[in-house]
Design goal:
Distance between the termini of chain A: 72 Å
Number of strands of chain A: 12
Oligomer: homodimer
Structural class of chain A: alpha/beta
Strand content of chain A: 15-25%
Strand order of the largest sheet of chain A: 2-1-3-4-5-11
Shape of chain A: elongated
Largest interface: A-B, 66 and 66 residues
CATH topology of the largest domain in chain A: Rossmann fold
Order of helices and strands of chain A: HHHHEHEHEHEEHEHEHEHEEHEE
Number of domains of chain A: 3
Number of helices of chain A: 12
CATH superfamily of the largest domain in chain A: Response regulator
Helix content of chain A: 40-55%
CATH architecture of the largest domain in chain A: 3-Layer(aba) Sandwich
DNA sequence: TTGAAAGCGCTACCAT
DNA sequence: ATGGTAGCGCTTTCAA
């Protein structure tokens, strides 16, 4: 690896001061166009690359945005959110530092600390816990922190989250309009904000229509597919299957459909099934689950944009952004027979 | 956002020089323990966070590693590779800058350029093209570049790749030992290194056993599930179904199984099916596809470790690392009847 | 139009 | 044990 040329290297070659080089490369108005041309020429000739770290040190700016997630992949929406953040950040000339906490709070803290030390201009956090005081302690009001993801406290100063009550509205509305009256909501543990909202929304929407809100819960977030199968098996055993089921996750819905299948039943013929998230169905073009789409890209875009304006001190006192899911009708819901 | 304290702030409070503070905080041997204790106390009191950018500027070190991928998620192995890279980098005190090129070469260049400007110590690239001259042009021998991923030229100086020929060895061996003699390999377009290796390996292994290597190819990498279904449909129509099929991707295998199902056939009862990659099956605990596992975490770990040693100038002239897939026997392969 | 001087926050080197 | 000085690569300010 060779040593990288600096503006001084160029200055020496051009026979001017390094200040002139600095200005010329930034296309300052007070440098003659000949000088500029000559300097730019030399710069490309010797393969000069500006040192952003040095520039940022001197301008007290940051060229990077930090992001911390529990993990990439593994049935999370962070892939899509990150892809969008990366794109928008790049458009604006920013790099993204990404850290995977592996759902370990200590590692999360470590990433946070390293990013603060590296002076990211803002931090976008999808925490693995709902208590995020450890993050705030580290960032100490010195760098803006925005929260995304299901664990986010809706009272956070900067947060982008999804209205899961509205998901219930869409789900029940859709099923009701298809003639369903015996509708169940399937959820899993542990009880968290996300699940609670869906549940509340479900109760509201069902009650509004004078229907009893059947709610069933089992299993754990780490394997909602199994939870879906389990609940379905139970209801079949009790001969208590509803005509429609809304599941708190897509995988849970897939589990429901699996279980139905193993009993010779199917969706939507015997039971209508709706999922939630619309994750990874880009991968499975043939999985035709009716579901509620979470606007990952929009959330990502909103997060960077807020981060950018916060970094540039267009001081927003607070900004809580609420996103809505949308209904994607595929082929697992149909008229009630 | 308040202004961040610096070592000078601490120096002023402690009534010592900023040099002493710098040394004390780095636990230098030539500072009295009392002074150290006092300074450390002040530092935590006022919430001091060292500025890594400034330190790196002065030590000519880099605290970050760059990584560029075509996209996160979307049926790629980069999730798992990144998670591991992030963990190992953090262990060593490094941040990872990650960029998603969205399979756009211009965006890939932009990310690369920004990362070089931000002085990443090394760059790990999973390019979206096999010609990576644009990357090298930008990095100009000034920062080490390691390549991972299917498009990697095996002759690259620093590369971590998988021996897909060996995948064929494992697949054919397994099927042969189960008594299968009529074995087909299903692939998709476009023709690339990865596919070619699997194909070559397949031909070798079959020929070695005196068996005709049946190879079928259709569709496109973007939807291998459909390709799998299509080929299966064709062979069923021609009444030419083999007793075992090895697919170039897991999704393709899922497609095969789907198509079989729709004809009342199943794996392994009627046809044994093997996939490739072992991707996202952590998500689907009930998908019990026999497949070839790609060691993503190992590749990630090897990549960071090489990057770190390269950054610290333990100059390796070159380092081509080859990884092997391993057979994961689940429930879609069985004895030939 | 150009550049000398100072400074961003830190470390290295060498006196004291 | 402590600190002055210089310098990392860059920008800003201001004088020439």
């Amino acid at each position: 690896m060779e040593k990288k040329p600096t503006i001084k290297t160029i200055a020496k070659i051009a026979g001017v001061s390094h200040v002139t080089v600095s200005k010329a490369l930034r296309d300052a108005p007070d440098i003659s166009s000949q000088t500029k041309a000559r300097i730019v020429q030399i710069a490309t000739d010797i393969g000069y690359t500006p040192n952003a770290a040095a520039r940022n040190l001197s301008t007290n700016n940051s060229g990077t945005i930090g992001m911390i997630v529990p993990a990439m992949g593994e049935n999370t929406a962070y892939n899509a959110i990150f892809n969008e953040i990366s794109a928008v950040a790049a458009e604006n000339g920013y790099c993204v530092m990404l850290g995977s906490s592996h759902r370990d709070i200590e590692l999360e803290k470590k990433h946070c600390k390293m990013m603060v030390e590296n002076r990211v201009g803002a931090l976008i956090v999808a925490s693995c816990t709902s208590d995020v005081s450890h993050i705030k302690d580290i960032c100490k009001n010195m760098i803006p922190v925005l929260f995304v993801g299901g664990k986010t406290d809706p009272n956070e100063k900067y947060s982008m989250l999804c209205d899961y009550r509205y998901s219930a509205t869409l789900a029940v509305e859709h099923l009701y309009s298809l003639g369903h009256r015996d509708i169940a909501f399937f959820a899993y543990g542990p009880d968290n904000l996300t699940i609670r909202q869906k549940e509340e929304g479900f109760v509201t929407e069902m009650s509004k229509r004078g229907l009893p809100p059947k709610i069933f819960k089992t299993g754990h977030a780490s394997n909602t597919l199994a939870a879906g199968m389990e609940l379905t098996e139970q209801l079949i055993a009790q001969n208590n299957l509803p005509t429609a089921i809304w599941c708190a996750s897509d995988l849970m819905a897939v589990g429901v459909i699996n279980a139905l299948k193993s009993h010779g039943l199917s969706a939507p013929e015997d039971v209508s099934v709706i999922g939630h998230d619309d994750l990874y169905f880009d991968l499975f073009p043939d999985i035709t689950l009716t579901t509620l789409h979470t606007p990952m890209a929009e959330i990502g875009r909103a997060a960077v944009n807020l981060a950018l304006s916060l970094m540039n001190c267009e001081k927003e006192v607070e900004s809580r952004q609420l996103f809505r899911t949308s209904l994607v009708v595929r082929h697992t819901t149909g008229n009630c027979k």
